[in-house]
Amino acid sequence: MDFEFSEDERLLAETARRIVARDVEPVLAKHPQDPALPKSVMLDLYHSVEVGARGFCQEAEDDVR
Q: Domain range for residue 51?
């Protein structure tokens, strides 16, 4: 059985890492770890990640064409 990731899976994982490093980690670094993040911050993070993922999907779609 082959447990290696396919090229597409590796690219997806790397893209997810880049989105988190660019959009999530800087926000988390500004807030203490113990209390929950404010709802407004969570919504901003969600929006950032959603937009980043949408951009990734568009790039992947363009590559297929």
A: 36-65
